[in-house]
Amino acid sequence: MAAANSQERNTSNADSPGSNMVGTLKQLLVRYGTQLLKPCDSTEELLELLHNLHRVLIHTLHDHKDRVQLALQSSKEALIANELIRHAERDVRISVTLCISEIVRITAPDEPYEEDQMKEYFGLLNTALENLSFMSGGAYLKAVSIIRSISLCQACVLMLDHQLYASIRQMFHLFFNVIRANHHPAIFSNMVNIMAGIVRANDDNDEFSVKLAKILLARLKKENQNVTPASFQLAEDTFKNCSNALREHLPKAAKSLGIPVEDYAEVVASLLQGATQGEKNHGVFFNKRKKNKARIKRCITCFG
């Protein structure tokens, strides 16, 4: 019996995310990546292959980064190719975005692609996240997984480095438009983490900081607390998490909007009147930006 129990424990250990598991992950990454480089007979077959690849990627931890680097190459190459990232089928493009988001998480803080290719990926991101409005279905579940991944590694901060300002503003508006009171709390927190992280990281473009402040302030009018409560709560939580970064830009943003101070929520009014607001710190992969040509190196805490 003891020998049987020992064997059972050894079998269990082999299935844990240790050395044996990493070896299995590497084999599967190579297999699915190689298959993706070849034409599929049907869209259904392609979607199934992308689904299988995603299942492997979500079990590949950031700690595995160095050990799976070579195994990821074929998948990286296939996913960014025009045949996939610009596929005619919407479901395929969402699945491609989903897989790339996991690769961005795994390879952080290094970007997995060159600048033009990263822009191609970010170009699909907002379209995929629009599916958060559906509240159910396959596309919705993929969007939930995407927002979790990009929140964990603060991938959207890279959009600042690539000067994708219009896409960032679109993302902010998208979050406020799709959020609902019955969304899972994790979706709220992921949205807050993404938006607040971008605001805090934008330390070299005052004009854009003012634009981001205006987006938040427009949602933080007192009347919105009853009209669009979920959107108001999202804006308030985001504001609290990046108020220090917004402080110097608020007067200009408020003046531009022309809304009286007394019409804002208390959290805004008090800050505009000179009161200080606390700022929560989040450990993220991409929370401090430093350009170094095509690569961005950061020395920060990782989630794993």
Reconstruct the topology from this structure:
Elements: H1 2-14, H2 19-36, H3 43-58, H4 65-68, H5 73-80, H6 82-85, H7 90-107, H8 115-129, H9 138-153, H10 158-161, H11 165-178, H12 185-201, H13 206-219, H14 224-227, H15 229-246, H16 250-257, H17 266-272
Helix pairs in contact: 2-3, 2-5, 3-7, 7-8, 7-9, 8-11, 9-12, 11-13, 11-15, 12-15, 13-15, 13-16
How many helical stretches? 17
Tell me the fraction of residues in β-strands, as a range: under 5%
Give a count of the beta strands, DSSP E runs of length 2 or more. 0
Largest sheet: none
Return Rg in Å: 21 Å
Helical percentage: 55-70%
Flag low-confidence runs. Answer: 1-17, 275-284, 288-304
**Distance between the first and last residues' Cα:** 37 Å
Shape call = elongated
Main structural class: mainly alpha
The SSE string, one letter per element, is HHHHHHHHHHHHHHHHH
Average of pLDDT: 87
Kindly describe this structure.
By secondary structure, the chain is mainly alpha-helical. The protein is built from 17 helices and no strands. It has helices spanning about 1-15, 20-35, 45-60, 65-70, 75-80, 80-85, 90-105, 115-130, 140-155, 160, 165-180, 185-200, 205-220, 225, 230-245, 250-255, 265-270. The two termini are about 35 Å apart. The model is unreliable at about 1-15, about 275-285 and about 290-304 (pLDDT under 50).
